[in-house]
Design goal:
- The protein is α+β, with helices and mostly antiparallel strands and about 150 residues long.
- The strands form two sheets. A four-stranded antiparallel sheet has the order 3-4-6-5. The chain has a two-stranded antiparallel ribbon with strand order 1-2.
- The chain contains six helices and six strands, in the order H-H-H-E-E-H-E-E-H-E-E-H.
- The protein is about 45% helix and about 25% strand.
């Protein structure tokens, strides 16, 4: 089993089923004759930029950032966004608890040239900004495109 095939099956399962944990995903993969350790699966999820989104019945489920097109899902993330503060070529984004990872993954998945990358905790994201971009309004505008609905918060 090669990595490409495994990643493809993970994407397929996430898109077709409401997977709520790594344990559930490991079991689903095993049913498809794919054996994977939790550590490998964790790396695979990071490679795919998998995030967790709120599901009305299951709590949180895995999703791919490209799957988030529904306005209600986007508004959940916009509502979790609390604010942003800048310092040099860094920005600190505050979120509701448990949302920083998902929001950071969404930002990273868009790969905006203004933002080099992110580090997320539970309710805080550190954005490393391209040092050539001095216009903070451009950064704010980029974030508004990624997360419609945050206009009043930044």
């Amino acid at each position: 089993m090669n990595k490409k095939t495994r990643l493809s099956k993970i994407v397929d399962l996430i898109q077709k089923k409401n997977i709520s944990s790594q344990e559930m995903l490991v079991a689903e993969l095993a049913e498809n004759d794919i054996q994977v350790t939790q550590a490998t699966l964790s790396r695979d999820l990071k490679t795919l930029n998998v995030i967790k989104v709120i599901h009305p019945e299951k709590g949180y489920i895995y999703s791919l950032p490209s799957n988030i097109k529904d306005e209600n899902e986007l508004s959940v993330f916009a509502n979790a966004f609390k604010g942003i503060t800048f310092s040099g070529n860094m920005a600190v984004v505050k979120t509701l608890p448990a949302f920083a990872n998902s929001i950071a993954s969404m930002i990273d998945s868009y790969q905006p040239e203004e933002i080099i990358g992110s580090i997320a905790g539970d309710d805080t994201i550190l954005l490393i900004l391209n040092e050539d971009i001095k216009d903070r309004d451009l950064i704010k505008s980029t974030l508004k495109k990624i997360l419609p609905g945050i206009s009043g918060k930044i």
